[in-house]
Known about the structure:
Layout: E1 12-14, E2 17-19, E3 23-25, H1 34-43, E4 50-52, E5 56-57, E6 81-86, H2 90-101, E7 107-112, H3 117-120, H4 132-145, E8 150-157, H5 165-174, E9 179-186, H6 197-206, E10 211-214, H7 220-229, E11 234-237, H8 240-243, H9 247-256, H10 265-281, H11 286-300, E12 304-305, H12 309-316, H13 321-333, H14 335-338, E13 341-342
Parallel strand pairs: 3-4, 3-11, 4-6, 5-6, 6-7, 7-8, 8-9, 9-10, 10-11
Antiparallel strand pairs: 1-2, 12-13
Helix pairs in contact: 1-10, 2-4, 4-5, 10-11, 12-13
Bound molecules: flavin mononucleotide.
The site of flavin mononucleotide has 24 residues, from loops.
Amino acid sequence: MDRMLKVEKTSFSFGSLSVFPNTILSPMAGVTDPPFRRLCRDLAKNRMGLLVSEFVSTDGSSDFSLKNRKELKFYPEERPFGIQIFGRDPVRMAKAAGLIETLQPDFIEINAGCPVPKVADKGGGAGLLRDLDRLAAILRAVKSEIDLPMTLKCRIGWDEEHINIFDTLRIAEGEGVDLLTVHGRTRVQGYNGFADWDIIGETASRAKIPVVGNGDIVSVNTAREKLEKYPIVGVSIGRGALHNPWLFGQIADAWEGNPSLEISLKEAFSIFEKYYGYMLEDGITASGALGRLKQLAARLCKGLFPENLIFRQSLLTSETPIAFFEKIALFIEDDCSLNTQFYPDRLVNLNGKKENEVTFGRQFKG
Ligand SMILES: Cc1cc2nc3c(=O)[nH]c(=O)nc-3n(C[C@H](O)[C@H](O)[C@H](O)COP(=O)(O)O)c2cc1C
């Protein structure tokens, strides 16, 4: 049960933007496209804080162009909305940022956190943390090209021997970054283990610019605890949004002093129809949409108590959207669902393993 304790920090500002609640739906490639963002917005009654695009590559052999970039699509009702770019080349990044500015997002974000080898090993994403001069050059070039606020999202360092977030902060401040989001893992950690919130907190306490913390926020209480303990202005929520797409609304309700709403099993599983409808409206094919339904189902089913691995497995092996929805309808009508509760923040950690199974092993080679 959430403590009905008043949180002091419920909003933040940067540039001329004022953001309530002080949450960000973390950009996630292959997840946070317009239909998923719309689903979260809908469940939160539009109280999302900030929304960001999936990342957009600026690397390539031909000139950056705005054509055929589905990640750039956003709707006016999503504001305040930012577009995130990644790449290794300051000139290409600046040119891309200039073109993207013509689409009139509310801010442009530089990615210095992507751990994927094909990005990081080529010097983009988290690769920039091994070459802070390059990061500085990118920030400088982008800043001089755009009038919009520029934000930076980064990790705390490349690996545990090279935690350089305080240097990154100094560079960000020197190059005019308006808001810094710190994911408290190293590149080598990937998404394993837990984020180091003490380092995020120390960064925020040294910062002259607003700092948002990111990593392992799964409930109103985890958001509240981090905001109370550390001098961050807000929290950015990634995988927690897949386990609990209601989370932004729950946080907004808690900050506004509203009672927290219980979500029935039926309500929980009705969001799939809504999500599917949004995907079709957005031009996603039925088979593409099925993959995304399963992606959400895999996480949402972790909130079932008692666990029901047979139902989960059966959903995840559905061959068509119709079969997927039939299985949900049967489950909801079935007697066993009468004894099943849905607790979206029941999960122990975001790595999909039970607490004692968490591995701190390396996901990526240093
Ligand atoms: C599937 C997936 C895709 C991601 N794509 C991006 C991305 O495009 N840009 C980015 O800055 N971070 C990306 N991330 C990282 C998240 O934004 C976030 O920093 C990370 O998941 C830690 O937050 P969490 O513990 O709340 O999930 C991605 C993460 C996941 C799991």
